[in-house]
Design brief:
Strand content: 15-25%
Helix content: 25-40%
Largest sheet: 12 strands, mixed
CATH superfamily of the largest domain: Alpha/Beta hydrolase fold, catalytic domain
Number of strands: 14
CATH architecture of the largest domain: 3-Layer(aba) Sandwich
CATH class of the largest domain: Alpha Beta
Mean pLDDT: 80
């Protein structure tokens, strides 16, 4: 009964916070850029009568987006958001979020990183979904263990994650050179958003300093002795220079073209140390990566951060096609919240953040400062 009342409260209170008007129909295109990266684009489009909604996962999921419709130029040029998925996931891991952003006047581009395995843009998958689901249930109280088992073939990508921000930058190169985007997006209003490994990836894109690992002292045994410690309690933070692939090199992730960053459940220490001086919104569940003060340390010195911790929510956050299948999942999956139950803080705060820092429109963000969504447990620097 309490849960029913709580759901009603979310719907009623969440509905009281205005969103940007859904001024646009949504188009979707899948094509390959000249530099070889295959992308999916969600954009304000001109819907044509009789078109079927876009579907994915063997037509199991449909959204109100229409394939290959003409772009709606009435509000162009639009701000662009490039999205980075989590380890082993794929470009289709946040479809509902992407559609909502396009409805509200953003162009969203997603692509498969080289570690993608869950569902590729061509419709193939490398996962046994039944087996993966059973492992998440089996290790419902140990998310790290579940990931290790489900994505065991992808874990080696964490050893040298430099390819991740480089792929995002390469995709942006291809976007800016492609005819479809000419006059349709504003090259001076570009943001990045990502989940998990993708959240860490986009934060790294805003790190201006070069990480200097040329001095052997930067990866001495004394420096590296704590790299395998429990990061939730360790006094010492890990050093990037302890990665064998980085030793003797200067490492840079920075891409000045990105102006604002949304990181959802980011992998905290994957690119540490990083300092992002541009606007950052961090959204995370309270039962995983930022649950302890120690895990919050890397973000506390970011000068322009909006930081939301969401109650009773685990790491998977906006990955709507995994956790939006059946509400009964709440009985067996720790921190489960179906996507529709979370729309207030994922969609409204995302729109407000990018409206403010890409479109210079702070109205919705100012509203959310005064009237928050339910389930927001902690707000920092809002």
């Amino acid at each position: 009964m309490k849960r029913v009342l709580f759901i009603m409260g979310v719907l009623l209170l969440g509905g009281g916070i205005p969103m940007s008007a859904d001024a646009y129909s949504v188009g979707v295109k899948i094509f390959t850029l000249e530099n070889g990266h295959k992308i999916i684009v969600w954009y304000p489009g001109e819907r044509q009568a009789g078109q079927e909604p876009f579907s994915h996962f063997g037509r199991a999921r449909r959204v109100r987006a229409y394939l290959d419709v003409l772009p709606d130029m009435s509000g162009a040029p639009y701000a662009l958001i490039v999205r980075s998925h989590g380890l082993g996931m794929g470009a289709l891991d946040a479809v509902q979020w992407s559609v909502t952003m396009a409805k509200n006047g953003f162009v969203v581009v997603a692509f498969d990183h080289r570690d993608a395995s869950a569902c590729h843009l061509d419709g193939t998958t490398e996962l046994d979904w039944l087996d993966a689901g059973m492992k998440f249930v089996k290790y419902k109280n140990d998310f790290d263990k579940a990931v290790e088992e489900v994505y065991s073939d992808s874990l080696h990508y964490l050893d040298d994650p430099r390819y991740r921000p480089r792929e995002v930058s390469a995709v942006l190169d291809g976007i800016l050179a492609h005819q479809f985007f000419q006059g349709f997006i504003d090259p001076k209003r570009i943001g990045a958003a990502g989940h998990s490994f993708g959240g860490a990836t986009v934060l790294a894109l805003g790190h201006e300093d070069v990480i200097n690992c040329t001095d052997p002292a930067s990866y001495s045994p004394q420096v590296c002795r704590n790299n395998n410690a429990d990061l939730s309690t360790s006094e010492f933070l890990p050093s990037q220079c302890c990665r064998p692939a980085y030793q003797g090199q200067e490492i840079s992730f920075y891409d000045s073209r990105f102006k604002a960053f949304l990181a959802v459940g980011p992998g905290t220490f994957l690119f540490w140390p990083i300092q992002n001086n541009k606007p950052v919104m961090l959204i995370s569940g309270d039962s995983f990566e930022v649950a302890s003060e120690n895990m919050q340390r890397p973000f506390q010195d970011f000068p322009r951060i909006y930081w939301l911790i969401v109650a009773d929510t685990d790491h998977m956050t906006w990955v709507d096609w995994i956790y939006n299948h059946n509400p009964l999942s709440a009985l067996v999956l720790k921190g489960y919240q179906a996507y529709w139950f979370k729309f207030c803080f994922y969609e409204k705060y995302s729109i407000a953040f990018f409206d403010a820092h890409l479109n210079n429109d702070f109205e919705l963000l100012d509203t959310l400062k005064r009237k928050s969504c339910p389930m927001i447990k902690f707000k920092y620097k809002l």
